[in-house]
Write a structure and sequence with these properties.
Elements: E1 12-18, H1 26-37, E2 41-47, H2 53-63, E3 67-70, E4 84-85, H3 87-92, E5 97-101, E6 104-108, H4 110-121, E7 130-134, H5 138-147, E8 153-158, H6 161-175, E9 179-183, H7 186-192, E10 198-201, E11 226-229, H8 238-245, E12 249-251, H9 254-269, H10 275-287
Parallel strand pairs: 1-2, 1-3, 4-6, 7-8, 7-10, 8-9, 10-11, 11-12
Antiparallel strand pairs: 3-5, 5-6
């Protein structure tokens, strides 16, 4: 690997924005890929509060930031400030990657492709299966749209029931999918999870530093579930541990993170990164915490 470390006036800037952002592994994996390919870029993280989002977008243009990853809670709200949105991302209603071309901000959603690929690589069979999402935000939107064409039924849940119901109606209208929305209350989850094959946690619950938190009581889980937790820090969340104890197959969010990151990296730079290296660097970093 190249040892290039110098930053000059020509160095291009890539970044991730979110709130909070201290947990993000994106700088770790992207800077490793940048160094590996000996590119004159640097990748950093910005903690952007929701009330500063529009100002931040103006800053991307003014400062000529080359590429931006977008994470919780901005994936939906940022769209109204952008210039061009990929048709798939427009349909999903959420974006996670922006490319700045001469102050014109173009956006895509690489979560959808990255997440579906992670599930397939982990051996998760989706054809004709029933899926339940915990959380109805940007990740649920993205994955629901790409899974709708394969699965039998999707159940969306959220602490704000209306959010799940509205999203379910939007996706049903766009795709014709068999999809419903409910409140993520214990009694509701107990009733709905009986015939569920794939459980996806699309909330930040269980993320570092609150690593003992879980979005669903372990008593509600059953052993026939494939449990996918999009949280990647820690590598094995409390939900995954609870699920594994009763015989569930589990998948953490690391592969989805790396997949979507690699797609974004290639879009920004025109170079395909070493995704295995990106994943290894994150594991090394998390291993010393």
């Amino acid at each position: 690997m190249s040892q290039k470390t110098s930053i000059t006036a020509k160095t291009k800037v890539l970044c991730v924005i979110g709130h909070p952002i201290e947990h993000s592994m994106s700088p770790t994996m992207h800077n490793a890929a940048i160094q590996d390919l000996d590119l004159d870029y640097i990748y950093i993280a910005y903690d952007i509060r929701p009330n500063n989002l529009e100002k931040a977008v103006q800053g991307f243009r003014a400062l000529n930031i080359t590429g931006i990853n977008v994470t919780i809670p901005h994936k939906e709200n940022i769209m109204k400030y952008l210039d061009e949105i990929d048709p798939v991302a427009q349909q999903i209603g959420a974006i996670n990657t922006i490319k700045n071309e001469n102050e014109r901000l173009k956006a895509r959603n690489t979560d959808a492709t990255g997440g579906k690929q992670a599930l397939k690589n982990a051996g998760c069979k989706m054809q004709g299966k029933n899926v339940l999402f915990l959380g109805s935000g940007g990740v649920s939107r993205a994955l629901s749209y790409v899974l709708a064409e394969e699965v039998n039924k999707i159940v969306l849940t959220d602490v704000i029931e209306e959010k799940a119901v509205v999203l379910a109606k939007e996706i049903e209208s766009s795709t014709g999918a068999n999809i419903e929305g409910f409140a993520s209350k214990d009694q509701v989850l107990k009733e709905r999870i009986i015939d569920i094959d794939i459980l996806i946690n699309a909330t930040p619950i269980g993320m570092y530093p609150k690593i003992f938190d879980t979005p669903i009581s372990k008593d509600i889980l059953h052993g026939d579930l494939f449990v996918f937790d999009v949280v990647y820090n820690p590598l094995e969340t409390q939900l995954m541990k609870d699920a594994a104890k009763i015989g569930c197959k589990t998948l953490g969010g690391l592969d989805m993170l790396v997949n979507q990151g690699a797609i974004a990296f290639e879009w920004w730079t025109g170079k395909r990164p070493n995704s295995t290296l990106m994943k290894t660097k994150i594991i090394e970093f998390l291993g010393i915490k």
